[in-house]
Write a structure and sequence with these properties.
75% helix
């Protein structure tokens, strides 16, 4: 065979290998991509389609001006733009929420199929072939970018079909897709820097959290408006779809994606397989604290993560406490917006305690996510082989999982306590009538919903450990979306009843619904018991 023929054969083999890697990446992310596509398109079209019945002509110019000026509204929900149109109202109601959903999915999917697969050893043979680390990573990034692009394109078509202007729909959809792509690129970069999936995911979550904080501060404080140019969430507000239709903020997101992706691809070829640029220092003294038992080891594993989550939750609810007076005063002066909030599932915002009770319901989403992520980390430790030696010893598998579940439940209790104290401190700063006991009671009221997520995650761990993170968040995140959509569309009462949020009392404005709380706790405990039993009986998953 001639040299030219060998070169042709080599290129053909390399092309075939690239296609195989692409098909692998598609198979790994297709289910999650379809889920977020359905949520994004479904939620947006429902809000746009019901605009005429929920809002209609009830917004006058003075009310819109007051809404745009209110710092609390701008900080929590973004700058109101073009609310007198179905498209503008849809962007304001759903834009930030969907951007967070898409970017978090992109984060988790990226670290799972890159750093997670590599750390588990499933890339060893793959990287021994014709494709190097940068090529394999590039194929995965292309698939993930295509998934977010498909979501954006489908959303744009759906919004145009509903009757909103095409340019505004395209800009809004492109912004959401680019925000998710920025998260994908940032996750890929973190996966090259950190040697574990958990560390890479945590670093990217910090990046997204800071980006969301920059957007909130930039929207609420006029002199710091320049913060909205920081990706991934700030530029979405600056596009002002359905009114100004600016494209320059999208260029910022695209450039951020290119820079982060280029950095990830460059670093992929400059590190060892299964390693990161920031590897643990070799030869350091042993750290034996909290290693005396399985239970103390579970505490050791959760401490750093809990500190990070507590910082983020505390900062957000401190801001909630500071904004309560401004928000309640605005809604008292503009009752039509209070009615709109009630239709969307946010009733009782007219008083400080009612406002706190309504916003405390949001706390169940991050705390539920925390519980699901912790159980998912336990599942990842199993699939990566880090639990093999423990399972080969005398410690029962059920005890390992029970210790993890116990510390996670305590961690969730810590998070809701931090949120209550932070809200109380913020209320003190502005002179709001929200005692510490009332604030903590309100945050503890949502803990059963987070425990349902914990129970769901453990139940899934016992049967399908690869789906722990997504399915574990269904009670908290899925239940919240179901409640909002049901209330916004006037769905049948039984639809809203399916959500655990429908059974939460408005604490501290009202007394807790103890029977409903007990039922949720019992259901969570039953799910944990079944999950532990299934986990003890099934084979290890690698």
């Amino acid at each position: 065979m001639t040299a030219a023929a060998l070169r042709v054969a080599g290129r053909t083999a390399g092309t075939a290998a690239g296609r195989a890697v692409t098909r692998l990446a598609v198979r790994q992310v297709r289910r999650g991509a379809l889920v977020v596509l359905a949520v994004t398109v479904g939620m947006s079209t429902l809000v746009a389609a019901t605009y005429a019945t929920t809002v209609g002509d009830g917004l006058d110019a003075d009310a819109l001006a007051a809404l745009a000026r209110n710092p609390a509204i701008r900080t929590l929900f973004g700058e109101p733009v073009a609310l007198d149109t179905a498209g503008g109202f849809t962007v304001w109601r759903t834009g930030t929420v969907l951007a967070v959903v898409l970017s978090v999915w992109g984060l988790l999917a990226t670290t799972r199929v890159t750093r997670g697969e590599e750390a588990a050893g499933r890339w060893d043979l793959l990287l021994a072939g014709r494709l190097g680390p940068a090529a394999v990573l590039g194929r995965h990034l292309a698939v993930l970018a295509a998934a977010t692009t498909l979501t954006g394109a489908t959303l744009a078509v759906a919004l145009v079909a509903i009757g909103t202007p095409a340019r505004g729909a395209a800009l809004h959809a492109a912004g959401l897709a680019l925000a998710a792509t920025v998260a994908v690129a940032a996750s890929a970069l973190a996966a090259q820097v950190f040697p574990t999936r958990a560390a890479a995911s945590g670093a990217t979550l910090v990046f997204l959290g800071l980006g969301l904080l920059a957007r909130m501060v930039g929207d609420g404080v006029a002199p710091l408006g320049w913060l909205r140019w920081l990706p991934p969430y700030g530029p979405l507000a600056l596009t002002r779809p359905y009114q100004d239709d600016r494209t320059s903020p999208l260029i910022v997101l695209a450039l951020a994606t290119v820079v982060l992706s280029a950095g990830a691809l460059t670093l992929a070829g400059r590190r060892d397989v299964r390693d990161g640029l920031l590897s643990p220092a070799a030869g350091r003294p042993p750290r034996l604290r909290l290693l005396s038992s399985v239970e103390t080891f579970a505490v050791r594993r959760i401490l750093r993560t809990l500190v990070g989550w507590s910082s983020g939750v505390g900062a957000y609810f401190l801001l909630i406490g500071v904004l309560t007076v401004s928000l309640t005063d605005f809604l008292a002066d503009n009752p039509h917006f209070a009615d709109l909030a009630a239709q969307a599932g946010f009733a009782g915002l007219g008083t400080v305690r009612g406002c706190a009770a309504t916003l405390f319901a949001l706390l169940a989403v991050p705390v539920g996510a925390f519980t699901a992520v912790r159980v998912a980390a336990f599942a990842a430790a199993e699939t990566d082989g880090r639990l093999a030696l423990l399972h080969a010893g005398t410690v029962p598998r059920a005890r390992l999982l029970t210790a993890e579940v116990g510390t996670t439940a305590v961690g969730a209790a810590v998070l809701v306590t931090v949120a209550g104290v932070a809200t109380w401190l913020g209320a003190i700063l502005v002179g709001a009538d929200l005692p510490l006991r009332a604030a903590v009671a309100g945050t503890w009221n949502v803990l059963p919903v987070a425990l349902l997520s914990l129970g769901a995650a453990v139940l899934v761990l016992g049967r399908a450990p690869h789906g722990v993170a997504v399915l574990g968040m269904v009670p908290a995140a899925g239940g919240f979306l179901l409640k909002v959509i049901a209330d916004s569309t006037g769905a049948a009462g039984w639809v809203s009843w399916l959500s655990p949020y429908a059974h939460l009392a408005a604490v501290p404005q009202a007394t807790p619904d103890w029977p409903a709380t007990a039922v949720m706790i019992v259901l969570a405990g039953a799910a944990v018991a079944v999950g532990v039993a299934d986990y003890r009986r099934r084979d290890m998953v690698v």
